[in-house]
Amino acid sequence: MSVPITDPRDRLIVALDLPSVGAAESLVAQLGDAVTFYKIGYELGFAGGLGLARELIADGRKVFIDFKLHDIGNTVARGIASLAALGASFATVHAYPQTLRAAVEGRGDSALRLLAVTVLTSYDEADLRAAGYGAGVEETVARRVVQAREAGIDGIVCAPTDATRVRTLLGPDRAIVTPGVRPEGAATGDQKRVATPFAAIRAGADHLVVGRPIVAAPDPAAAARAVQAEIAAALAAS
């Protein structure tokens, strides 16, 4: 049984999509107590971001390592074991059955929560067809959610537009994490399946990943608090 998340700050995950540790440290300092949860992906991770992850965890922050692992089972299991030892809260793998099973094995009895990536939020029906998939977005997401649930994965990463159906398939006690979240009026960039923070929470998301609308804002802390206010409003309306 998952523990209810009562603080809107713990539902917002700020994506540290920045080119250097120095830039990320500067943003973290600007955000201060406004943010408790950070995501580190390829860009920062490959620029020394795992060291920053250790510092954030030591400082009491939560860290989501978003490397979307997908490789032979042994490699995935060992990589996940290393992230568990780091003290990360979340880590992502692609939702392929062999990869899912290997990740669960690598996680062992640690506190690391594994998230399965279904279909990237930058993909639509045409992108799946171009990649050779016979099924569309909805069918592919549904199949991967069921496979992830059966493998013992702790949650799903999906577009906010998929969250309602994913919640039905996943059940109430596992996490739904949604990127592709854009406050009203914000540029969508390369995202194709997006929703506002309010709509994403109402659709069933537990955590929202927000990058550019906060990272590039003139006042990142104010932008983060605005997202959290939408989260609080959505929870109050539930």
TrEMBL record:
One of its GO terms (biological process) is 'de novo' pyrimidine nucleobase biosynthetic process. The active site is at D66, K68, D71. GO terms for cellular component: cytosol. SMART domains: OMPdecase. Residues 11-227 form the Orotidine 5'-phosphate decarboxylase domain. Catalyzes the decarboxylation of orotidine 5'-monophosphate (OMP) to uridine 5'-monophosphate (UMP). This is Orotidine 5'-phosphate decarboxylase.
